[in-house]
Amino acid sequence: MRVAVYPGSFDPFTKGHADILKRAAKLFDHVIVGVLVNPYKKCLFSPKERVQQICDVAKHLENVRVIHFDGLLVDFCATVGATAIIRGLRAVSDYEYEMQMFTVNNTLSPKIETVFLMASPPYSFLSSSIVKEVAKYGGDISNMVAPSIKEEVESKFEALKNEK
Ligand code: PNS
Question: Which of ligand 1's atoms lies nearest the C-alpha of 73?
């Protein structure tokens, strides 16, 4: 049984993330989306909200589960029995950060392989930060996130605006 973890902040989960997940689900028996709980990083959505958003978007993928985790990624992989980590690569600018993460994870746990999938062309520009930047200023994010997530991102910014 080949189990992989697809880890990330997913704040929010974009169409680019969904594309990588769908492709990873074809390569592995089980894929577990690991949503990072990081108290030091200010996120737009809580871990619970992010897990729910991804569950909704990925409900048609039968071999995918979504779980939040804290601590080291390699420990999470061991807990869920995963032998591979999936990461998406967009541009050359991703390379240094990904190489660094691979090196740390590989040093901590050499048996866990990292598998990089290149972003499909329509998503090579896309990131959660871009989604938030565009949504913050009222831009259209419908080609960047699923409709259910679009609604939640827009309501979140609306609520933040009303708080001021
Ligand atoms: O979507 P992101 O923010 O680029 O994902 C980064 C993530 C969650 C994969 C990375 O920060 C992570 O694995 N964090 C858990 C802590 C850890 O294991 N750190 C060592 C590897 S750098």
Answer: 18
Helix ranges (H only) for the chain are 15-27, 47-57, 73-80, 95-108, 128-136, 147-163
Strand partners, 69: 36
The tens digit of pLDDT for each residue in 52-78 reads 999 999 999 999 999 999 999 999 999
Judge whether residue 39 has pLDDT over 90: no
Domains of the chain: residue spans and CATH: 3-124 (3.40.50.620)
Would you say residue 83 has pLDDT above 90?
A: yes
Contacts for 30 with CB less than 8 Å, ≥ 6 apart: 1, 2, 3, 4, 63, 64, 65
Mutation to probe ligand 1, out of 73, 89, 108 (largest number of atoms < 8 A from CB): 73
Residue 162, both tokens: 């009303």
